[in-house]
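Researcher: Predict the fold of Proline--tRNA ligase.
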Amino acid sequence: MKASQMFAPTLREVPAEAEIVSHQLLMRSGMLRKTASGVYTYMPLAWRTMKKIMDIIREEMDAAGCQELMLPIVHPAELWQQSGRWQVYGDELWRLKDRHGRDFCLGPTHEEVITDLVSGDVKSYKQLPLRLYQIQNKYRDERRPRFGLMRGREFIMKDMYSFDRDEEGLDESYRLMHQAYTNIFTRCGLDFRPVAADSGAIGGDTSQEFMVLAESGEAGIIYCSSCTYAASTEIAAAYLDKTPSQEIPEDLEEVYTPDCKTMEALTAFLGVPLEKTLKTLCYMADEKFVMVLLRGDRMVNEIKVKNRIGCLELNMAGDEEIRQHLGSPAGYLGPVGVKNIRIIVDQEVPYLANLVGGANKDQYHLRNVNPGRDFPIDDVADVRLVEAGELCPQCQQELAFARGIEAGQIFKLGTKYSESMGAKYLDDNGKEQLMVMGCYGIGVGRTMAAAIEQNHDQDGIVWPLAIAPYHVVVVPVSDKDPDQMAAAEKLYQELTRARVEAVLDDRKERPGVKFKDADLIGYPFRVTIGPKALAEGKGEVKLRSVGKVEMVALDEIVPLILEKMKKHM
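Model: C-alpha coordinates for Proline--tRNA ligase follow.
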Protein backbone atom coordinates (compact mmCIF):
# COMPACT_ATOMS: atom_id res chain seq x y z
CA MET A 1 0.00 0.00 0.00
CA LYS A 2 1.25 3.48 -0.86
CA ALA A 3 0.69 5.96 1.96
CA SER A 4 -0.19 8.64 -0.58
CA GLN A 5 -3.26 6.55 -1.49
CA MET A 6 -4.16 5.50 2.05
CA PHE A 7 -7.27 6.86 3.77
CA ALA A 8 -5.83 7.39 7.25
CA PRO A 9 -6.33 11.03 8.30
CA THR A 10 -4.21 11.32 11.45
CA LEU A 11 -4.81 13.96 14.12
CA ARG A 12 -2.23 15.79 16.21
CA GLU A 13 -4.65 16.83 18.96
CA VAL A 14 -6.59 14.48 21.24
CA PRO A 15 -10.35 14.71 20.51
CA ALA A 16 -12.23 16.16 23.47
CA GLU A 17 -14.71 13.27 23.58
CA ALA A 18 -12.01 10.58 23.84
CA GLU A 19 -11.58 9.65 27.51
CA ILE A 20 -9.36 6.57 27.44
CA VAL A 21 -6.16 5.74 25.58
CA SER A 22 -7.64 3.33 23.03
CA HIS A 23 -10.34 5.80 22.03
CA GLN A 24 -7.81 8.63 21.76
CA LEU A 25 -5.33 6.64 19.68
CA LEU A 26 -7.94 5.08 17.40
CA MET A 27 -9.24 8.56 16.61
CA ARG A 28 -5.81 10.19 16.30
CA SER A 29 -4.38 7.41 14.09
CA GLY A 30 -7.22 7.80 11.60
CA MET A 31 -8.70 4.39 12.41
CA LEU A 32 -12.03 5.41 13.88
CA ARG A 33 -14.58 8.16 13.23
CA LYS A 34 -17.73 8.86 15.20
CA THR A 35 -21.02 8.72 13.29
CA ALA A 36 -23.36 9.12 16.29
CA SER A 37 -23.14 8.56 20.03
CA GLY A 38 -21.89 5.00 20.46
CA VAL A 39 -21.80 4.40 16.69
CA TYR A 40 -18.50 4.46 14.78
CA THR A 41 -17.05 4.00 11.31
CA TYR A 42 -14.11 1.63 11.15
CA MET A 43 -11.59 3.27 8.82
CA PRO A 44 -9.39 1.10 6.53
CA LEU A 45 -6.52 0.58 8.99
CA ALA A 46 -8.84 -0.41 11.84
CA TRP A 47 -10.81 -2.69 9.56
CA ARG A 48 -7.64 -4.56 8.61
CA THR A 49 -7.02 -5.25 12.30
CA MET A 50 -10.65 -6.19 12.85
CA LYS A 51 -10.47 -8.68 9.98
CA LYS A 52 -7.29 -10.22 11.42
CA ILE A 53 -9.00 -10.71 14.79
CA MET A 54 -12.01 -12.21 13.01
CA ASP A 55 -9.75 -14.53 11.00
CA ILE A 56 -8.12 -15.78 14.21
CA ILE A 57 -11.57 -16.31 15.74
CA ARG A 58 -12.80 -18.21 12.67
CA GLU A 59 -9.73 -20.46 12.62
CA GLU A 60 -10.14 -21.40 16.28
CA MET A 61 -13.93 -21.82 16.05
CA ASP A 62 -13.62 -24.05 12.99
CA ALA A 63 -10.85 -26.08 14.65
CA ALA A 64 -13.20 -26.70 17.61
CA GLY A 65 -15.86 -28.16 15.32
CA CYS A 66 -18.05 -25.07 15.02
CA GLN A 67 -19.90 -24.02 11.86
CA GLU A 68 -20.36 -20.41 10.77
CA LEU A 69 -23.73 -19.06 9.69
CA MET A 70 -25.40 -15.64 9.55
CA LEU A 71 -28.55 -14.89 11.53
CA PRO A 72 -30.86 -11.90 11.01
CA ILE A 73 -30.25 -8.64 12.84
CA VAL A 74 -33.98 -7.81 12.99
CA HIS A 75 -35.85 -10.12 15.38
CA PRO A 76 -39.64 -10.52 15.71
CA ALA A 77 -40.89 -9.68 19.19
CA GLU A 78 -42.69 -13.01 19.42
CA LEU A 79 -39.40 -14.89 19.86
CA TRP A 80 -38.30 -12.65 22.71
CA GLN A 81 -41.75 -12.85 24.30
CA GLN A 82 -41.57 -16.64 24.07
CA SER A 83 -38.27 -16.69 25.96
CA GLY A 84 -39.59 -14.17 28.50
CA ARG A 85 -36.89 -11.58 27.76
CA TRP A 86 -38.95 -8.97 25.87
CA GLN A 87 -39.52 -7.10 29.14
CA VAL A 88 -36.63 -8.52 31.18
CA TYR A 89 -33.92 -7.17 28.87
CA GLY A 90 -34.99 -3.61 29.67
CA ASP A 91 -34.35 -0.34 27.89
CA GLU A 92 -31.16 -1.55 26.21
CA LEU A 93 -33.29 -3.62 23.83
CA TRP A 94 -33.58 -1.53 20.68
CA ARG A 95 -37.27 -1.89 19.76
CA LEU A 96 -38.96 -0.90 16.50
CA LYS A 97 -42.17 -1.46 14.55
CA ASP A 98 -42.69 -2.29 10.90
CA ARG A 99 -45.21 -0.51 8.67
CA HIS A 100 -47.93 -2.90 9.89
CA GLY A 101 -47.34 -2.00 13.52
CA ARG A 102 -45.70 -5.33 14.39
CA ASP A 103 -43.00 -5.27 17.09
CA PHE A 104 -39.39 -6.12 16.33
CA CYS A 105 -36.02 -5.50 17.93
CA LEU A 106 -32.43 -5.15 16.75
CA GLY A 107 -30.49 -8.16 18.01
CA PRO A 108 -28.28 -7.48 21.05
CA THR A 109 -27.64 -11.24 21.17
CA HIS A 110 -29.15 -14.24 19.36
CA GLU A 111 -30.24 -16.94 21.83
CA GLU A 112 -33.88 -16.68 20.77
CA VAL A 113 -33.27 -16.72 17.02
CA ILE A 114 -30.75 -19.58 17.09
CA THR A 115 -32.88 -21.70 19.44
CA ASP A 116 -35.93 -21.21 17.22
CA LEU A 117 -33.86 -22.19 14.17
CA VAL A 118 -32.41 -25.33 15.72
CA SER A 119 -35.68 -26.46 17.32
CA GLY A 120 -37.27 -26.46 13.86
CA ASP A 121 -34.62 -28.60 12.14
CA VAL A 122 -32.93 -30.77 14.76
CA LYS A 123 -35.08 -33.68 15.89
CA SER A 124 -32.72 -36.56 16.71
CA TYR A 125 -29.85 -37.24 19.10
CA LYS A 126 -27.86 -38.21 16.02
CA GLN A 127 -27.75 -34.51 15.00
CA LEU A 128 -26.13 -33.47 18.29
CA PRO A 129 -23.81 -31.97 19.40
CA LEU A 130 -24.27 -28.91 17.22
CA ARG A 131 -22.08 -25.79 17.52
CA LEU A 132 -23.01 -22.76 15.41
CA TYR A 133 -21.42 -19.31 15.35
CA GLN A 134 -21.56 -16.00 13.54
CA ILE A 135 -19.64 -12.71 13.47
CA GLN A 136 -22.13 -9.91 13.17
CA ASN A 137 -23.25 -6.45 14.25
CA LYS A 138 -25.10 -6.23 17.56
CA TYR A 139 -27.25 -3.40 18.90
CA ARG A 140 -27.79 -2.27 22.49
CA ASP A 141 -29.34 1.08 23.31
CA GLU A 142 -26.85 1.98 26.02
CA ARG A 143 -27.97 4.76 28.32
CA ARG A 144 -24.49 6.26 28.29
CA PRO A 145 -22.24 5.09 25.47
CA ARG A 146 -18.62 5.85 26.34
CA PHE A 147 -14.97 4.92 25.95
CA GLY A 148 -15.19 4.49 22.18
CA LEU A 149 -15.47 0.81 21.29
CA MET A 150 -15.65 -0.29 24.93
CA ARG A 151 -19.31 0.58 25.37
CA GLY A 152 -21.14 1.36 22.16
CA ARG A 153 -24.64 1.04 20.79
CA GLU A 154 -23.55 -0.77 17.63
CA PHE A 155 -20.68 -3.24 17.80
CA ILE A 156 -19.34 -6.41 16.18
CA MET A 157 -19.47 -9.63 18.14
CA LYS A 158 -18.70 -13.28 17.57
CA ASP A 159 -21.46 -15.33 19.20
CA MET A 160 -21.48 -19.13 19.26
CA TYR A 161 -24.21 -21.44 20.54
CA SER A 162 -23.80 -25.08 21.47
CA PHE A 163 -26.61 -27.65 21.55
CA ASP A 164 -25.92 -30.92 23.38
CA ARG A 165 -27.82 -33.99 24.50
CA ASP A 166 -27.02 -33.61 28.20
CA GLU A 167 -24.93 -31.81 30.82
CA GLU A 168 -21.94 -34.00 30.06
CA GLY A 169 -22.05 -32.86 26.44
CA LEU A 170 -22.36 -29.23 27.54
CA ASP A 171 -19.31 -29.66 29.76
CA GLU A 172 -17.34 -30.77 26.70
CA SER A 173 -18.57 -27.85 24.56
CA TYR A 174 -17.72 -25.44 27.38
CA ARG A 175 -14.25 -26.97 27.72
CA LEU A 176 -13.64 -26.68 23.98
CA MET A 177 -14.67 -23.02 23.98
CA HIS A 178 -12.55 -22.24 27.04
CA GLN A 179 -9.54 -23.62 25.19
CA ALA A 180 -10.50 -21.89 21.92
CA TYR A 181 -10.83 -18.54 23.70
CA THR A 182 -7.48 -19.08 25.41
CA ASN A 183 -5.97 -19.72 21.97
CA ILE A 184 -7.67 -16.68 20.41
CA PHE A 185 -6.52 -14.14 22.99
CA THR A 186 -3.05 -15.67 23.15
CA ARG A 187 -2.71 -15.43 19.36
CA CYS A 188 -3.88 -11.80 19.53
CA GLY A 189 -0.88 -11.11 21.79
CA LEU A 190 -2.91 -10.17 24.86
CA ASP A 191 -2.23 -10.57 28.58
CA PHE A 192 -5.54 -11.91 29.88
CA ARG A 193 -7.12 -13.98 32.62
CA PRO A 194 -10.32 -16.10 32.58
CA VAL A 195 -12.44 -15.26 35.65
CA ALA A 196 -15.67 -16.61 37.11
CA ALA A 197 -18.46 -14.13 36.33
CA ASP A 198 -22.12 -13.25 36.72
CA SER A 199 -24.34 -14.47 33.87
CA GLY A 200 -26.48 -11.31 33.81
CA ALA A 201 -29.37 -11.05 31.35
CA ILE A 202 -28.08 -13.98 29.27
CA GLY A 203 -28.86 -16.44 32.06
CA GLY A 204 -27.44 -19.79 33.07
CA ASP A 205 -25.64 -20.82 36.23
CA THR A 206 -21.99 -20.97 35.11
CA SER A 207 -20.05 -18.27 33.31
CA GLN A 208 -16.49 -17.06 32.80
CA GLU A 209 -15.23 -13.75 31.43
CA PHE A 210 -11.94 -13.44 29.58
CA MET A 211 -10.45 -10.26 30.99
CA VAL A 212 -7.66 -8.38 29.25
CA LEU A 213 -5.65 -6.85 32.09
CA ALA A 214 -5.50 -3.04 31.84
CA GLU A 215 -5.63 -0.19 34.34
CA SER A 216 -8.35 1.51 32.29
CA GLY A 217 -10.64 -1.52 32.49
CA GLU A 218 -14.16 -0.97 33.78
CA ALA A 219 -14.30 -4.38 35.44
CA GLY A 220 -12.66 -5.36 38.70
CA ILE A 221 -10.96 -8.74 39.14
CA ILE A 222 -10.19 -10.51 42.38
CA TYR A 223 -7.54 -13.20 41.93
CA CYS A 224 -5.10 -15.37 43.82
CA SER A 225 -1.44 -15.55 42.84
CA SER A 226 -0.98 -18.81 44.72
CA CYS A 227 -3.68 -20.83 42.95
CA THR A 228 -6.05 -20.64 39.96
CA TYR A 229 -8.85 -18.73 41.71
CA ALA A 230 -10.05 -15.64 39.80
CA ALA A 231 -13.45 -13.97 39.64
CA SER A 232 -15.01 -10.68 38.70
CA THR A 233 -15.81 -8.47 41.68
CA GLU A 234 -19.49 -9.05 40.83
CA ILE A 235 -19.32 -12.61 42.16
CA ALA A 236 -15.93 -12.96 43.88
CA ALA A 237 -15.93 -14.79 47.21
CA ALA A 238 -13.45 -14.90 50.08
CA TYR A 239 -12.59 -17.53 52.65
CA LEU A 240 -15.28 -17.68 55.33
CA ASP A 241 -14.07 -18.31 58.86
CA LYS A 242 -16.89 -20.34 60.42
CA THR A 243 -15.44 -20.26 63.92
CA PRO A 244 -18.25 -19.02 66.20
CA SER A 245 -17.54 -15.97 68.31
CA GLN A 246 -16.22 -16.82 71.78
CA GLU A 247 -17.93 -13.78 73.29
CA ILE A 248 -20.73 -14.38 75.77
CA PRO A 249 -23.90 -12.70 74.44
CA GLU A 250 -24.73 -9.69 76.60
CA ASP A 251 -28.07 -8.05 77.26
CA LEU A 252 -29.57 -5.85 74.57
CA GLU A 253 -29.18 -2.18 75.48
CA GLU A 254 -30.72 0.87 73.85
CA VAL A 255 -28.37 3.86 73.66
CA TYR A 256 -28.93 7.48 72.70
CA THR A 257 -26.83 8.31 69.61
CA PRO A 258 -27.61 11.85 68.46
CA ASP A 259 -26.67 12.77 64.88
CA CYS A 260 -25.13 9.34 64.22
CA LYS A 261 -26.61 8.61 60.81
CA THR A 262 -23.36 7.27 59.33
CA MET A 263 -21.21 4.33 60.38
CA GLU A 264 -18.25 6.67 60.87
CA ALA A 265 -20.19 8.99 63.18
CA LEU A 266 -21.59 6.05 65.13
CA THR A 267 -18.22 4.37 65.74
CA ALA A 268 -16.64 7.68 66.77
CA PHE A 269 -19.46 8.43 69.20
CA LEU A 270 -19.55 4.99 70.84
CA GLY A 271 -15.84 4.23 70.52
CA VAL A 272 -16.38 0.85 68.87
CA PRO A 273 -14.51 -0.56 65.85
CA LEU A 274 -16.40 -0.66 62.56
CA GLU A 275 -16.28 -4.46 62.40
CA LYS A 276 -18.31 -4.60 65.63
CA THR A 277 -21.27 -2.84 64.02
CA LEU A 278 -24.13 -4.17 61.92
CA LYS A 279 -24.77 -2.40 58.62
CA THR A 280 -28.43 -2.34 57.55
CA LEU A 281 -29.38 -1.52 53.97
CA CYS A 282 -32.89 -1.35 52.59
CA TYR A 283 -33.94 -1.99 48.99
CA MET A 284 -37.00 -2.07 46.80
CA ALA A 285 -36.83 -5.31 44.83
CA ASP A 286 -39.55 -5.28 42.17
CA GLU A 287 -41.67 -3.15 44.56
CA LYS A 288 -41.00 -5.44 47.55
CA PHE A 289 -39.18 -4.02 50.58
CA VAL A 290 -36.05 -6.01 51.51
CA MET A 291 -33.45 -5.57 54.27
CA VAL A 292 -29.79 -6.62 53.85
CA LEU A 293 -27.41 -7.04 56.81
CA LEU A 294 -23.60 -6.97 56.70
CA ARG A 295 -20.68 -6.50 59.04
CA GLY A 296 -20.19 -2.76 59.44
CA ASP A 297 -16.86 -2.58 57.59
CA ARG A 298 -18.13 -4.48 54.54
CA MET A 299 -19.58 -3.18 51.27
CA VAL A 300 -22.72 -4.65 49.77
CA ASN A 301 -22.58 -6.35 46.36
CA GLU A 302 -25.87 -5.46 44.70
CA ILE A 303 -25.35 -8.01 41.90
CA LYS A 304 -25.25 -10.77 44.52
CA VAL A 305 -28.31 -9.33 46.27
CA LYS A 306 -30.24 -9.15 43.01
CA ASN A 307 -29.31 -12.73 42.14
CA ARG A 308 -30.28 -13.93 45.61
CA ILE A 309 -33.70 -12.32 45.36
CA GLY A 310 -34.20 -13.14 41.67
CA CYS A 311 -35.69 -9.72 40.95
CA LEU A 312 -35.65 -7.67 37.76
CA GLU A 313 -35.10 -4.27 39.41
CA LEU A 314 -33.18 -3.51 42.60
CA ASN A 315 -33.03 0.05 43.95
CA MET A 316 -32.11 1.58 47.28
CA ALA A 317 -35.25 2.33 49.27
CA GLY A 318 -36.07 6.01 49.65
CA ASP A 319 -36.83 7.83 52.93
CA GLU A 320 -40.59 7.56 52.45
CA GLU A 321 -40.42 3.83 51.74
CA ILE A 322 -38.18 3.28 54.79
CA ARG A 323 -40.51 5.23 57.09
CA GLN A 324 -43.52 3.39 55.68
CA HIS A 325 -42.06 -0.04 56.45
CA LEU A 326 -39.92 0.64 59.53
CA GLY A 327 -41.22 3.92 60.98
CA SER A 328 -37.69 5.26 61.32
CA PRO A 329 -35.40 7.55 59.31
CA ALA A 330 -32.38 6.17 57.48
CA GLY A 331 -29.28 6.00 59.68
CA TYR A 332 -30.98 4.29 62.61
CA LEU A 333 -32.15 1.09 60.96
CA GLY A 334 -31.73 -2.44 62.28
CA PRO A 335 -33.31 -5.90 62.18
CA VAL A 336 -34.42 -6.21 65.80
CA GLY A 337 -38.20 -6.34 66.10
CA VAL A 338 -38.76 -6.26 62.36
CA LYS A 339 -41.68 -8.40 61.16
CA ASN A 340 -43.05 -9.41 57.74
CA ILE A 341 -39.99 -8.08 55.92
CA ARG A 342 -37.47 -10.26 54.11
CA ILE A 343 -34.07 -9.99 55.81
CA ILE A 344 -31.03 -11.25 53.86
CA VAL A 345 -28.12 -11.88 56.22
CA ASP A 346 -24.57 -11.90 54.83
CA GLN A 347 -22.85 -15.21 55.58
CA GLU A 348 -20.33 -13.59 57.95
CA VAL A 349 -22.98 -12.16 60.26
CA PRO A 350 -24.15 -15.39 61.99
CA TYR A 351 -20.62 -15.87 63.41
CA LEU A 352 -20.55 -12.44 65.09
CA ALA A 353 -21.69 -11.39 68.57
CA ASN A 354 -22.54 -8.28 70.60
CA LEU A 355 -22.87 -5.90 67.65
CA VAL A 356 -24.08 -2.31 67.51
CA GLY A 357 -27.12 -1.91 65.26
CA GLY A 358 -29.92 0.53 64.60
CA ALA A 359 -32.94 0.57 66.94
CA ASN A 360 -35.45 1.66 64.24
CA LYS A 361 -35.92 4.72 66.41
CA ASP A 362 -34.71 8.23 65.61
CA GLN A 363 -31.41 9.05 67.42
CA TYR A 364 -31.09 5.58 68.96
CA HIS A 365 -29.02 2.44 68.42
CA LEU A 366 -28.80 -0.92 70.17
CA ARG A 367 -25.76 -2.43 71.81
CA ASN A 368 -25.19 -6.18 72.02
CA VAL A 369 -27.26 -7.21 69.04
CA ASN A 370 -26.79 -10.96 68.57
CA PRO A 371 -27.75 -12.77 65.37
CA GLY A 372 -30.23 -15.59 65.91
CA ARG A 373 -31.20 -14.37 69.35
CA ASP A 374 -32.37 -10.86 68.46
CA PHE A 375 -33.31 -11.36 64.81
CA PRO A 376 -33.79 -14.39 62.55
CA ILE A 377 -30.95 -15.67 60.35
CA ASP A 378 -33.00 -17.87 58.05
CA ASP A 379 -32.00 -16.22 54.75
CA VAL A 380 -28.18 -16.34 54.73
CA ALA A 381 -26.13 -15.65 51.58
CA ASP A 382 -22.85 -14.16 50.38
CA VAL A 383 -23.95 -10.61 49.49
CA ARG A 384 -20.81 -8.55 49.98
CA LEU A 385 -17.96 -7.22 47.89
CA VAL A 386 -14.61 -8.92 48.35
CA GLU A 387 -11.52 -6.72 48.63
CA ALA A 388 -7.80 -7.24 48.08
CA GLY A 389 -6.02 -8.60 51.13
CA GLU A 390 -8.78 -11.01 52.12
CA LEU A 391 -8.11 -14.74 51.97
CA CYS A 392 -8.64 -16.95 48.93
CA PRO A 393 -11.63 -19.33 49.24
CA GLN A 394 -9.54 -22.12 47.63
CA CYS A 395 -6.12 -21.90 49.29
CA GLN A 396 -6.51 -19.22 52.00
CA GLN A 397 -3.66 -17.09 50.65
CA GLU A 398 -4.10 -13.34 50.13
CA LEU A 399 -6.27 -12.16 47.27
CA ALA A 400 -5.22 -9.36 44.93
CA PHE A 401 -7.15 -6.87 42.79
CA ALA A 402 -6.68 -5.87 39.19
CA ARG A 403 -8.67 -4.03 36.55
CA GLY A 404 -9.62 -5.65 33.28
CA ILE A 405 -11.53 -5.28 30.04
CA GLU A 406 -14.06 -7.99 29.32
CA ALA A 407 -13.24 -9.14 25.79
CA GLY A 408 -15.13 -12.43 25.85
CA GLN A 409 -17.54 -14.45 27.96
CA ILE A 410 -18.71 -18.05 27.95
CA PHE A 411 -21.94 -19.33 29.54
CA LYS A 412 -23.54 -22.63 30.44
CA LEU A 413 -27.19 -21.89 29.65
CA GLY A 414 -28.56 -25.33 30.46
CA THR A 415 -32.20 -25.63 29.39
CA LYS A 416 -33.18 -21.98 30.01
CA TYR A 417 -33.97 -21.30 26.34
CA SER A 418 -34.66 -24.81 25.07
CA GLU A 419 -37.41 -25.20 27.68
CA SER A 420 -39.14 -21.89 26.98
CA MET A 421 -38.79 -22.26 23.20
CA GLY A 422 -39.40 -25.98 22.81
CA ALA A 423 -35.96 -27.08 21.58
CA LYS A 424 -36.29 -30.83 22.01
CA TYR A 425 -34.89 -33.99 20.43
CA LEU A 426 -35.62 -37.71 20.52
CA ASP A 427 -33.01 -39.75 22.38
CA ASP A 428 -31.89 -43.26 21.39
CA ASN A 429 -34.93 -44.68 23.19
CA GLY A 430 -37.31 -42.46 21.25
CA LYS A 431 -37.99 -40.31 24.31
CA GLU A 432 -38.26 -36.54 23.99
CA GLN A 433 -35.52 -34.56 25.77
CA LEU A 434 -34.60 -30.89 26.09
CA MET A 435 -31.40 -29.76 24.37
CA VAL A 436 -28.75 -28.46 26.75
CA MET A 437 -27.27 -25.18 25.57
CA GLY A 438 -24.20 -22.99 25.92
CA CYS A 439 -23.46 -19.48 24.68
CA TYR A 440 -20.03 -17.97 23.90
CA GLY A 441 -19.28 -14.37 22.86
CA ILE A 442 -16.28 -12.24 21.88
CA GLY A 443 -16.40 -8.49 21.29
CA VAL A 444 -14.26 -7.97 18.19
CA GLY A 445 -13.95 -4.19 18.43
CA ARG A 446 -13.49 -4.38 22.17
CA THR A 447 -10.64 -6.87 21.66
CA MET A 448 -8.96 -4.40 19.30
CA ALA A 449 -9.41 -1.56 21.80
CA ALA A 450 -8.19 -3.75 24.67
CA ALA A 451 -5.04 -4.56 22.69
CA ILE A 452 -4.32 -0.82 22.45
CA GLU A 453 -5.04 -0.23 26.15
CA GLN A 454 -2.43 -2.88 26.91
CA ASN A 455 0.05 -1.98 24.17
CA HIS A 456 0.86 1.71 23.74
CA ASP A 457 3.38 4.37 24.72
CA GLN A 458 3.53 8.16 24.67
CA ASP A 459 3.99 8.15 20.89
CA GLY A 460 1.11 5.91 19.88
CA ILE A 461 -0.01 2.31 19.43
CA VAL A 462 2.37 -0.64 19.81
CA TRP A 463 0.45 -3.37 18.00
CA PRO A 464 0.98 -7.07 18.70
CA LEU A 465 2.33 -8.30 15.38
CA ALA A 466 -0.51 -10.76 14.70
CA ILE A 467 -3.18 -8.04 14.59
CA ALA A 468 -1.23 -5.00 13.33
CA PRO A 469 -2.93 -3.46 10.27
CA TYR A 470 0.41 -3.66 8.39
CA HIS A 471 3.70 -5.19 9.45
CA VAL A 472 6.20 -2.72 8.02
CA VAL A 473 6.35 0.89 6.90
CA VAL A 474 9.19 1.91 4.56
CA VAL A 475 10.08 5.60 4.95
CA PRO A 476 12.32 7.42 2.44
CA VAL A 477 13.65 10.51 4.21
CA SER A 478 13.29 12.70 1.12
CA ASP A 479 10.70 12.18 -1.60
CA LYS A 480 12.82 14.51 -3.78
CA ASP A 481 15.85 12.18 -3.79
CA PRO A 482 15.40 9.67 -6.67
CA ASP A 483 17.96 7.24 -5.19
CA GLN A 484 16.13 7.10 -1.85
CA MET A 485 12.77 6.68 -3.58
CA ALA A 486 14.11 3.94 -5.86
CA ALA A 487 15.67 2.02 -2.95
CA ALA A 488 12.50 2.40 -0.87
CA GLU A 489 10.31 1.24 -3.77
CA LYS A 490 12.57 -1.78 -4.39
CA LEU A 491 12.49 -2.79 -0.72
CA TYR A 492 8.71 -2.31 -0.60
CA GLN A 493 8.28 -4.63 -3.58
CA GLU A 494 10.59 -7.25 -2.05
CA LEU A 495 8.62 -7.19 1.21
CA THR A 496 5.36 -7.55 -0.69
CA ARG A 497 6.66 -10.52 -2.68
CA ALA A 498 7.74 -12.12 0.60
CA ARG A 499 4.10 -11.77 1.79
CA VAL A 500 5.04 -9.14 4.35
CA GLU A 501 2.26 -6.55 4.65
CA ALA A 502 4.08 -3.31 3.88
CA VAL A 503 3.35 0.38 3.42
CA LEU A 504 5.56 2.73 1.41
CA ASP A 505 5.31 6.23 2.84
CA ASP A 506 5.72 8.11 -0.43
CA ARG A 507 3.90 11.23 0.78
CA LYS A 508 5.38 14.64 0.13
CA GLU A 509 5.82 15.30 3.83
CA ARG A 510 8.68 16.17 6.14
CA PRO A 511 10.51 13.17 7.68
CA GLY A 512 9.33 14.16 11.17
CA VAL A 513 5.69 13.94 10.10
CA LYS A 514 6.25 10.48 8.60
CA PHE A 515 8.06 9.24 11.72
CA LYS A 516 5.33 10.56 14.05
CA ASP A 517 2.60 8.93 11.96
CA ALA A 518 4.51 5.64 11.88
CA ASP A 519 4.71 5.58 15.69
CA LEU A 520 1.14 6.80 16.10
CA ILE A 521 -0.30 4.10 13.81
CA GLY A 522 1.98 1.54 15.40
CA TYR A 523 3.61 -0.33 12.53
CA PRO A 524 5.66 -3.09 14.22
CA PHE A 525 8.66 -2.36 11.94
CA ARG A 526 9.87 0.90 10.42
CA VAL A 527 12.58 0.88 7.77
CA THR A 528 14.10 4.28 7.07
CA ILE A 529 16.01 4.94 3.85
CA GLY A 530 18.18 8.02 4.39
CA PRO A 531 21.13 9.52 2.51
CA LYS A 532 23.85 8.51 4.97
CA ALA A 533 22.74 4.87 5.38
CA LEU A 534 21.98 4.54 1.67
CA ALA A 535 25.53 5.64 0.81
CA GLU A 536 26.69 2.58 2.75
CA GLY A 537 24.07 0.33 1.11
CA LYS A 538 22.08 0.11 4.34
CA GLY A 539 18.69 0.95 5.83
CA GLU A 540 17.66 1.76 9.40
CA VAL A 541 15.35 -0.92 10.91
CA LYS A 542 13.38 0.00 14.02
CA LEU A 543 11.35 -2.51 16.05
CA ARG A 544 8.42 -0.50 17.46
CA SER A 545 7.89 -2.62 20.57
CA VAL A 546 11.37 -2.00 21.98
CA GLY A 547 12.49 1.10 20.07
CA LYS A 548 15.71 -0.63 19.07
CA VAL A 549 17.33 0.61 15.84
CA GLU A 550 19.66 -1.49 13.67
CA MET A 551 21.64 -0.51 10.58
CA VAL A 552 21.14 -3.39 8.14
CA ALA A 553 22.38 -4.03 4.61
CA LEU A 554 19.53 -3.47 2.15
CA ASP A 555 19.61 -7.04 0.84
CA GLU A 556 19.43 -8.40 4.41
CA ILE A 557 16.42 -6.37 5.58
CA VAL A 558 13.70 -8.70 4.28
CA PRO A 559 15.30 -11.87 5.74
CA LEU A 560 15.81 -10.06 9.07
CA ILE A 561 12.17 -8.94 9.25
CA LEU A 562 10.92 -12.41 8.29
CA GLU A 563 13.05 -13.92 11.05
CA LYS A 564 11.79 -11.47 13.67
CA MET A 565 8.19 -11.95 12.53
CA LYS A 566 8.52 -15.71 12.98
CA LYS A 567 9.53 -15.15 16.60
CA HIS A 568 6.66 -12.76 17.34
CA MET A 569 3.76 -14.37 15.47
